[in-house]
Each structure stands twice: as C-alpha cells, then as structure tokens.
Design goal:
- It is a single chain.
- The chain is an alpha/beta fold and 293 residues long.
- Helix content is 18%, strand content 32%.
- The strands form 5 sheets. A 6-stranded mixed sheet has the order 11-12-13-14-16-15, with helices on one face. A 5-stranded mixed sheet has the order 10-9-8-17-18, with helices on one face. A 3-stranded antiparallel sheet has the order 4-3-7, with no helix packed on it.
- The longest helix is centred in the middle third of the chain and has 13 residues.
- The chain is globular, with a radius of gyration of 19 Å.
C-alpha cells in the first residue's frame, strides 16, 4: 500500500479468518497482535496497531512459519447445507485435532443461500479454532449468488502455504467458466514444482455411479482432468456427493468428502465426517477420515 501525507499515521488493521499465530509484517518488521483485542476474542480474528509514514509499504499477515517447508495438516469438508444448526459439532471436532492449521472447504455451505443461513454459518464458525477457506457449491447458487462473494470474496483462487499450493475452483453450476479455466491453466503451471492440492465442489467424473454427480459435460470434465494430470497435481478433493469415496482420476489420488451433515446417501453407513490431510513439505501424505457421528 502507498500512503500520502493525509493517510499516513496510526493505523489499526483487523484481519478476519486468519491463522491463530499470524503476525503482521510491515516492510520486513514484525508487528505483534494487539494484546487486548477490542474487536474479538476469537483466535481467527487478529488486530494490529502500527504507525505508517507516507510512501510505499509492503504488508503481509502470516504466521512466522508460513514459508517453512515442513510437515503439517489441514482438514477438508463439504456439504453442510441443512445441517447448519448442528455443524458446530463438526467444527469442535476439527478444533480438537492438534496439528490442523486450517480447513479447506469444497462448497455447499448453505441449502438455499439465504441471508439467514449465511448469518448462522458465520456464528457457527465461532466454534472453529482455525480459519475456513472455501469455494462455493451449487447450493450457493440457489438464490442471489452475489451473497457469497459479498461475504467471502472469490470462489476461485490459489494460495501457497509451507510449500504446498492449494487451488480452489468454482464448479457450482456443474462446470467451469472459461475465465476460471484460464486461471487454472496458469495456476497449475505456477505450482508445477511443488505439492499441489486441487479443490472443487463437483467431481469432473462421478466415480460412484448411483447418481449423476459430475460435470454436466463429460468432455469438460475430461479436459480438466487432463490439465491437472499434465500439470502434476498431487491430490484432488471434491464434495457434492453426500458420502466418502477414495479413488483415482487421471492417475491423481481423489477423495469425495460430502459429510458436512446434508442428507447422507442411503445404505453406505457414512454420515458426518471430515478429512485430515497430511502435507509432508515435499509431498502429500496420509488422508484420514474422521467420523463425527
């Protein structure tokens, strides 16, 4: 950010949905959190007070080990929908896993994308001790899709943490917008030489077969998988189908985890659950299912 004389001076920055151990780094100097945070007692909300002079400044909010390539874990989940009133149980269970740094979500936070549902989702996040980063699902498109973007920002994005790239792609309408496809091409190329996790709501190809839970175009799904395979993606995570399944697509390990609480598939005995994914620093490690019910 660049400040002029009228904007230089005392600044108070509030970061929401950030890692509990995050600090502010301004021009290479570390600024700790405000000890008595007047905005929130939640570990994922951080307040910083800093004096900034006129001119350009480079700011980053990140934990001290953000660029240290080493072993850590993330949780993954999708398809909360009608279980919003009970999802605090899942969030409590995730918070109890000691090495989980954050949650990655594959969409369907709500049933109808109503304002009241988003309000409830944000209240339930108070039971989660780590940040929640997610794309959207088809249920976020039921009414006023703009509500998701206004609250949470982009549904297609990429970030790198501790050497591993995470790419989130919006497939809420059972396909990819051409603009998103072009971003994926660039993101896959940028992550070519590091461990890479790709997440989207709807599987490009349905591995279960009892319901058509895949892209609306098989050709589009095959094109995406070809790009991911050619780009060396190491792991794909999906939701949409309300069960758990482990398989491979285009030779890439793949998991469906639709256990956020929406109506489960019948007869498979799999109810609410989430995944814990181990990242070893230079590869994808073990993926474990944690049952909540």
């Amino acid at each position: 950010m660049t400040l002029d004389a009228s904007t230089a001076g005392e600044w108070r920055l509030v970061a929401r949905n950030t890692l509990p151990d995050a600090v502010l780094v301004v021009d290479g100097l570390v600024v700790p959190r405000v000890a008595e945070d007047p905005f929130s007692a939640r570990p994922t909300v951080a307040t910083f007070a800093v004096t900034l002079g006129a001119g350009p400044h480079q700011l980053a909010i990140e934990p001290p080990d953000a660029h240290v390539v080493e072993r850590y874990h993330v949780a993954a989940m999708a398809d909360i929908q009608t279980a919003l009133p009970q999802v605090d149980d899942v969030f409590r269970a995730i918070s109890a896993v000691p090495e989980v740094r954050f949650v990655v979500g594959m969409g369907d936070l709500t049933e109808r994308a109503d304002t009241a549902e988003y309000d409830l989702f944000e209240r339930q996040l108070e039971y989660l001790a780590v940040p929640f980063y997610t794309t959207l699902g088809n249920h976020e498109l039921w009414s006023e899709p703009q509500r998701f973007f206004e609250r949470f920002g982009r549904a297609s994005f990429q970030f790198v943490f501790k050497g591993t790239a995470f790419t989130f792609a919006d497939s809420g309408d059972a396909g990819l917008d051409p603009l998103v496809e072009s971003w994926i091409v660039d993101w896959v190329a940028e992550a070519r030489d590091r461990p890479h996790v790709f997440l989207t709501h709807i599987p490009p190809i349905d591995p279960v077969g009892v319901r058509y839970g895949a892209f609306r175009s098989t050709r589009d799904g095959q094109r995406l998988l070809s790009r991911l395979a050619e780009g060396g993606v190491d792991l794909t995570l999906y939701g949409h189908i309300h069960t758990f399944d482990a398989f491979e697509n285009a030779g890439i390990p793949a998991y469906i985890s639709g256990g956020g609480g929406a109506m489960p598939m019948k007869w498979d005995g799999i109810d609410r659950h989430f995944l814990v994914v181990e990242l070893t620093g230079d590869a994808i490690g073990e993926v474990t299912v944690v049952r909540v019910d």
